[in-house]
User: What shape does this take?
Amino acid sequence: MSFIMFLAAMSLIELRISGAAVRSFVTFTPNWENVFQGDSVTISCNVRSNVQFSTYSFYWYKNNEMMSINEQKFIITSAEENDSGDYQCWTGTGNPSYPARLYVHSKGSAFRPVVTFTPNWRKIFINETVVMRCDVESTAQGTQRYYWYKNMEMINKEQKLDLTIIIATKEDTGDYQCSYGTGSLSYPIRLNVNPYAPVILQAPPYIYEGDPFTLRCHSWSLYKYEIVTFFLTDNKYTQAEKHVLYIPNANTAMTGIYQCTKRLDKSLSSYRTEKDETFILIQELFSDPEIRHNGSSVGGDLTLTCVTRLNPVKATLGLQFAFYRNLWMLQDFSVSDTYRVPSAQLEDSGNYTCDVRTYGCSVRKTSNMLSIQIEELFSYPEIKMDLDTIHEGDDMTLTCGTTLTPLRDTTELEFAFYRDGRNVQEFSVSDTYRVPSAQLEDSGNYTCDVRTSTDSVRKRSNVLYIQIHIKHVVYFPLLELFSYPEIKMDLDTIYEGDNMTLTCDTTRAPLRDTTELEFAFYRDGRNVQEFSVSDTYRVPSAQLEDSGNYTCVVRTITGRHESQQAAIKDIAPLMREV
Assistant: This one.
């Protein structure tokens, strides 16, 4: 069913918001009319009103034929030439959108000629004059021939730089293109010739962000006018007694439906108000930038790229790029769209953005924010010793411990060891340092370094103080094998003829209570009983000459552990005369 037939079958209700009729308009993302084959394009139906999108129904048409799409937007994932055409949407209320023309081109030369109009209006009245020019690079101008096309068909056999329409007619409406020599066709530019309306709103064929542009509320010369008013949806611009509106700097937010009203005076007593409206697309010079990175860990190369797409019509436009981390500039504006950190470190982590601008700085855009965390390639090393205490002559082993990140666990590391800042073992794949027989001079503050084989990352351990101790000869006290002996007599007083018995009393150590001992007895230093296992000395019938100072000595059988002699005790005269 055609668009016109569908509208005729519907009962149209004009919805008015804030006193103005609601009219949808179509936009493209990226925000330009010319795309290449294979490009992705999002086509959206926009409505400027206070009503939520969810309350609308959406109907889509291409070249006046209904499409089987009922969403607010849809995506052409890979554009083909047959996707070219006029797209319109309708919300079921108000008026349908104006056609938005999408041109899909095969990828040819980056340079294409550009068609310009003089005067620079895309809509004119019949009988007016317009001059079209095929602009090419200055280096390409010469004796080459120019070719002109209307709606993809060749016209104008004269093959000149300019194509002039002296007296425009309705039939001159169409898409115009040119080519130069054997080069590529220019992008199309549309001319609309209006034969009937008393007032037309004129705008340039193409308007790009950053451009100054002029709108003209144009009427037939036979009318005089007094008041001209311009509208952009809810924005109102009024310029009394003038028919133009000058806007010094276009931006994409100005895309929308413009309207102008004009009071026309036929005579002193007769006037009427006429209006016209048109959809104006403010095209992007380049898309919003996106910052991307290759991912990095400590020591790896970090590469950031500021990605943007140029409007195909502006393919030769020069851009400049700048990069920031945490809002601090890292790389000033230049033609390079990349920023490189040859050996990223932890301190390179942060929030990154990039800016893109034109050479004249008329347009500048900031990317999304990209948070980058530089991953630690390996942990800070910790130096350890295998023993708690080291003495002279001990074997000492130090270990430099670290852990690789799981994603880079095959990275080869090298280790070096230092004492008091001086290298004691050069970098190698061994994470240990050994001292076979430590000496006092091996004492000191030890550290170790870990690095990658390329030395792109190097880390130092904590400080470990090691004291080599003197190895003392330790004398353990000998346990007493038996106690010092004590000599005892069985009687307090001895008389001549009494039996006298002396005992050499000692106590063995508990763990050596089976040790065999020998005993000897002395009187006044003279032996009276040789060593034997008997600990007693008997005098059967004591005589006066048996009086004296008695001692005893105890020893082991081997004689190796002879005890000290007991203190000599004065024994009272053991006998009395009878």
Remarks:
- The first strand starts at residue 16 and ends at 17.
- The first helix runs from residue 3 to 9.
- Confidence is low (pLDDT under 50) at residues 1-21, 560-578.
- Residues 214 and 246 are 4 Å apart (CA to CA).
